[in-house]
């Protein structure tokens, strides 16, 4: 699509939207302006291509298509079949997976589909079988009690949240922590790295039905061959949630032992993080789990979102192009430049560096909580998120960490020199911020004092850095 076509498409769309509810059109324009002007380091965000974004705004949104390709509960799904089949084909080819299910609306949906597929495959449970034959909304209280009794003993072993795991990997406030009797593996307190011997020991003691690999805030590669061996040694199903690093798998940065697809029984992902697609999820598996995964609808999902499956097909086609390999390589080189730049200036990083798209700054080294650091950075035009670090003394709300990731800035064209300059800006803000106090004089975990002038100066420097790398340069909304 030429730049002119992109501008025309978006200008026309905003004109049509604005004629009905101008405030929505204004908010859409403002969102583009905000994204253009912020130094975005949120490790789970990216910028999808105009083709991917446009594939979501159309008539597919009006279609119900519960069921699977060629086997729907609604008539007239031939075009939905086309896009779902295309998205699944691209996913299979891209990741070298025998089977792909592209209906999940999000990562949690993808994980729930995978959990239920494994439970249905592995557990002899009449209530589960009954539940799978019906829509989840139709289950009665008695069904749920029966299910709970049957599944209550099933065990999951996943990475703990503070070590970098995800809340859907058995964290108590999430449904995964209620569906399963759950235990976590952490990281070595000295190195911050996964200690595979400890994981094996935990697996031997706990004997999980499912061993989960994958993370949302662990800055290192994971050896999936070893985790599979551990799973096999205790008869567990090995599931990997590659939501964060799917782009690095697609882009052949993670190969061999570090590519989860050949090692896991089942792999889940989102499509919008390093993979740079629309917001959504997918599941990959072998033929033995495919039939159960296909029951994601109605077990977990209602109607799929055909417009998002269309966008998944576009984005996955983009990820199959040779330039995506270059992109994925640059994400990691940039993350390493950012991590090195931060450490050279005195920042303390969990594990002392990164092998992937993210780094985790332990901001206790600056005398701050994650919340104070996040806000001081935001005041200075740098968008990050606070994140727990292993054995975090400040818990999951205030935290002691700042997670920084490079997929979005790499899409914008940033290279290692710009990431080093970004490290300088982050270090400047954090070293010029002091913890604040509450009205009664006690130390606050949220309040902070940023030296006068720093936010403006750093904000200007961040803005200057971004000017050389315009976001969606071909789109001019006028
Ligand atoms: N919320 C996502 C993240 O930021 O990592 C994961 O679901």
The average pLDDT is 95
Q: Which structural class should the secondary elements be placed in? A: alpha/beta
How helix-rich are the residues, as a percent range?
A: 40-55%
The largest sheet has its strands arranged as 4-10-9-8-7-5-6
Number of strands: 16
* Major sheet description: 7 strands, mixed
Distance between the termini: 19 Å
- Compute the gyration radius: what is it? 23 Å
CATH class of the largest domain: Alpha Beta
Q: What fold name stands as the CATH topology of the largest domain?
A: Aspartate Aminotransferase, domain 2
The number of distinct structural domains comes to 2
Q: Which consecutive residue ranges, at least 5 long each, have pLDDT under 50?
A: none
Named at the architecture level, the CATH assignment of the largest domain is 3-Layer(aba) Sandwich
Q: Tell me the fraction of residues in β-strands, as a range.
A: 5-15%
- CATH homologous superfamily assignment of the largest domain: Type I PLP-dependent aspartate aminotransferase-like (Major domain)
- What are the bound molecules? D-serine
How many helix segments? 20
Task: Write down the overall geometry.
Answer: globular
């Amino acid at each position: 699509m030429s730049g002119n076509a992109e501008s025309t498409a978006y200008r026309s769309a905003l004109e049509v939207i604005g004629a009905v509810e101008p405030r929505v059109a204004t908010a859409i324009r403002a969102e583009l302006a905000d994204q253009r002007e912020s130094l975005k380091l949120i490790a789970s965000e990216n910028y999808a291509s105009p083709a991917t974004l446009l594939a979501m705004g159309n008539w597919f949104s009006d279609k119900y298509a519960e069921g699977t390709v060629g086997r729907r509960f609604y008539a007239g799904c031939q075009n939905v079949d086309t896009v779902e089949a295309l998205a699944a084909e691209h996913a299979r080819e891209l990741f070298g997976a025998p089977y792909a299910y592209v209906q999940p609306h999000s990562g949690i949906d993808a994980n729930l589909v995978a959990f239920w597929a494994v439970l249905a495959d592995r557990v002899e449970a009449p209530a589960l079988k009954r539940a799978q034959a019906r829509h989840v909304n139709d289950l009665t209280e008695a069904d749920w009690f029966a299910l709970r009794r049957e599944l209550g003993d099933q065990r999951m072993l996943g990475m703990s949240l503070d070590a970098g795991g995800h809340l859907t990997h058995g964290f108590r406030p999430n449904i995964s922590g209620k569906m399963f009797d759950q235990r976590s593996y952490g990281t070595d307190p000295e190195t911050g790295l996964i200690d595979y011997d400890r994981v094996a020991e935990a697996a031997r003691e706990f004997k999980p039905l499912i061993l989960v690999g994958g993370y949302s805030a662990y800055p290192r590669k994971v050896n999936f061959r070893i985790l599979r061996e551990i799973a096999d040694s205790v008869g567990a199903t090995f599931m990997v949630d590659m939501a964060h690093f799917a782009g690095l798998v697609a882009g052949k940065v993670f190969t061999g032992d570090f590519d989860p697809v050949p090692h896991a029984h089942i792999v889940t992902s989102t499509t919008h993080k390093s993979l740079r697609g629309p917001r959504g999820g997918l599941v990959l598996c072998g033929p033995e789990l495919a039939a159960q995964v296909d029951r994601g609808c109605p077990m977990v999902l209602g109607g799929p979102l055909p417009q998002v499956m269309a966008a998944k097909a576009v984005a996955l086609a983009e990820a199959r192009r040779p330039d995506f390999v270059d992109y994925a390589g640059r994400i990691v080189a940039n993350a390493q430049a950012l991590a090195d730049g931060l450490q050279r200036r005195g920042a303390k990083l969990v594990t002392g560096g990164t092998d992937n798209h993210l780094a985790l700054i332990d901001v206790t080294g600056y005398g701050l909580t994650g919340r104070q650091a996040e806000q001081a950075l935001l005041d200075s035009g740098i968008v990050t998120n606070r994140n727990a670090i292993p054995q975090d003394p400040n818990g999951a709300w205030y935290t002691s960490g700042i997670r920084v990731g490079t997929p979005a800035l790499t899409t914008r064209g940033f290279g290692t020199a710009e990431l080093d300059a970004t490290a300088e800006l982050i270090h400047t803000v954090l070293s010029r911020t002091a913890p604040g106090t509450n009205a009664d004089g006690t130390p606050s975990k949220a309040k902070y004092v940023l030296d006068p002038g720093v936010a403006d100066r750093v904000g200007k420097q961040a803005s200057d850095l971004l000017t050389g790398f315009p976001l969606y340069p071909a789109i001019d909304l006028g």
